[in-house]
Write a structure and sequence with these properties.
heterodimer; A: alpha/beta; 2 domains; two-stranded antiparallel sheet; globular; B: 33% helix
Chain lengths: 454, 139
């Protein structure tokens, strides 16, 4: 059985998160940015990545986000859409007061222009890329070259464009790996999308001999558990031999996944890891625990981003950043955790530090008063007209830093522990934590079963 | 079958019932972290607070929320249409100290299980809810 040390890559979702990444990146194994972020704020992103690299000496990765130009499943109706609507937004019409139009977001339009055809063609016609847009291998090769060149060269190009930074351009490191272009395998045309992704991956691995080429498998949740389709994707990957593979099954959340889904993920890892490093594009503790079966690591956001839908759900209110409980490997509301104190016999800060968390954030906040735990959940009315109270930015910040510190601990614990010890710890937490939280820790039992299944 | 199709339809009869029990200072949808307590009341006479979770049918979900509200209230109840309340496993509620109120279609409420006082209440939460009530509530 393989026993890789898991790595954790932080995903920078927006520049508002840069403080977290800057302060903790030395504890992690790299940082990933979406190509759309790089395109919407090129100078700021390039400067940030240079700074992060100098301070932490950790690699960076650019997710080319090419799937954004393909078909997607509408979250509400489940129907396949080719209208690229999810990369559009309502934008003001300059000359007409109060009038808005639904237009492509600037970041994606610029990204398509950088990639060139067929990405720019898709934006121009307003219809998603389909496999038919890659009729010949020369079209594939050109698209691959352009997408990889973007990842490898964009930062330096940004610096060269500005006379003030041009002399620093060569100081910028190249990304740790480059990703082949990839598209979401939507279920109605799974075979066609898989075939296209295979052609793109093969072109990337055969053409590019410099920076290691990794492949991203991005598909509907069904792809994870469909044995026949899985077998084809795995066979394709073994044939084109990328330097690494990243798995992303839309809406797969390891904390609410079924046993079948968890077992399937383990199976993918077991089949691929002898031939290449396997990463989960959006995962958490379970993915790290799969390092005992060969998983090389996982990426996630700073608070917390351990799962991601291909199409983000628009219009939801800002979610509360909840408190991460390391023993339970998930996040919970402050009152739910406080309600567990009596059964856990937590009566003082020292009890809390011994039984829940003694990270720098927790010890600072609860120096002498256990009730100060409430600071992780502080709420306020952000404006005089707000109808709902929301978490204060300070409370959200505490929760994020606490999570990031705990994540490094989890990674280190997994590296030290045997599989049996991880399973035992999951079972022990299930037994120890009280009834009130039981409906929310079912994942521990499932993980234990999946990790110990023979 | 019940005439109640929305939780908020239970609010008026339950609030009236709570008032009759002495919880004259009342507010609805009281924020408690990311939750909102459907009905919260204070009795000056008994120096006691009550939190009531309104639910149409899913009493297990209500019980989890009710247990959280014990952090800020001396007494916590789940209120449901009487037909749903009859199907609740009251031994679980009793074990947790959570009470149960049944609401008839007529609006008449019955205490089917009395809530117990408990040791989960945090004085800082309780006091801040009382202060809020004194400043904002009608009664």
């Amino acid at each position: 059985m393989a026993d890789a040390k898991p790595s954790v890559i932080l995903r920078l979702g927006s520049h508002s998160e840069k403080e977290y990444v800057a302060k903790t990146l030395r504890q992690f194994d790299g940082v990933m940015v979406g190509a759309n972020l790089l395109q919407i704020s090129p100078a700021a992103t390039a400067s940030l990545l240079l700074k992060l690299h100098r301070e932490s000496e950790r690699p960076y990765f650019v997710d080319p986000m090419t799937y954004a130009f393909g078909s997607y499943c509408d979250v509400e109706t489940g129907k396949v859409r080719n209208d690229l609507d999810w990369i559009k937004s309502n934008q003001k019409v300059p000359s007409r007061k109060g009038v808005t139009e639904r237009r492509f977001k600037g970041s994606y339009r610029k990204l398509a222009d950088s990639f060139g055809p067929p990405f720019s063609d898709a934006i121009d016609r307003g219809i998603a890329i389909s496999p038919a847009d890659f009729p010949r291998n020369d079209v594939i090769d050109v698209a691959v070259q352009s997408v990889i060149a973007f990842q490898a060269e964009r930062l330096r190009a940004v610096f060269r464009e500005d006379p003030q930074t041009a002399s620093f351009a060569d100081d910028l490191p190249v990304p740790g790996v480059v990703f082949a272009p990839y598209f979401y395998v939507e279920p109605t045309r799974a075979q066609q999308w898989m075939q296209l992704n295979h052609r793109l991956a093969s072109s990337a691995t055969s053409q590019h001999k410099g920076i290691p080429v990794h492949v991203i498998v991005c598909g509907h949740l069904d792809l994870l558990t469909d044995e026949a389709l899985s077998a084809i994707v795995i066979e394709n990957l073994l044939e084109c031999k990328p330097a690494g593979v990243w798995l992303w099954f839309s809406r797969f959340d390891e904390r609410i996944a079924t046993k079948d889904e968890l077992l399937s993920l383990r199976s993918w890892v077991e089949q691929l890891s002898p031939s290449m490093p396997v990463f989960n594009m959006h995962g958490g503790f379970f993915s790290l625990a799969l390092s005992k079966f060969g998983m090389a690591g996982t990426a996630h956001g700073v608070g917390y981003g351990e799962q991601k839908d291909v199409v983000p759900v628009i219009g939801q209110s800002t979610p509360t950043v909840q408190y991460y409980v390391r023993a339970l490997h998930s996040k919970y509301s402050v009152p739910l955790i406080q309600r567990c104190f009596s059964r856990l016999r937590i009566k003082s800060p020292d009890d809390f530090f011994a039984k829940v968390c003694d990270c720098a954030i927790c010890t600072h906040i609860m120096k002498s008063d256990l009730d100060e735990f409430s600071q992780f959940g502080e709420i306020h009315y952000s404006t005089p007209t707000s109808k709902r109270a929301a978490q204060t930015p300070a409370a959200a910040r505490r929760c994020r830093y606490h999570f990031l510190l705990n994540r490094t601990e989890e990674r280190n614990e997994i590296a030290r522990a045997s599989l049996a010890e991880i399973v035992t710890a999951c079972n022990a937490a299930w037994e120890t934590w009280p009834t009130v939280i039981r409906p929310f820790i079912e994942h521990l039992k499932l993980w234990s079963e999946v990790l110990s299944a023979t | 079958m019940t005439k109640f199709s929305k939780e908020r339809q239970l609010r008026v009869p339950v609030a009236r019932f709570a008032k009759r029990q002495g919880f004259c200072l009342q507010t609805v949808e009281l924020p408690f972290y990311e939750y909102r307590i459907d009905l919260y009341g204070f009795s000056r006479k008994n120096d006691a607070t009550v939190a009531i979770e309104l639910k149409l049918s899913n009493w297990r979900k209500a019980l989890v929320q009710a247990m959280l509200y014990q952090l800020c209230a001396d007494l916590v109840y789940i209120a449901m249409p009487e037909s749903s309340a009859r199907r609740v496993d009251t031994s679980e509620l009793e074990f947790c100290g959570v009470g149960l109120i049944g609401v008839r279609d007529s609006g008449r409420c019955t205490c089917m299980l009395a809530a117990r006082t408990h040791e989960e209440v945090r004085q800082n939460y309780r006091q801040s809810q009382i202060n809020y009530l004194k400043e904002n509530a009608n009664g």
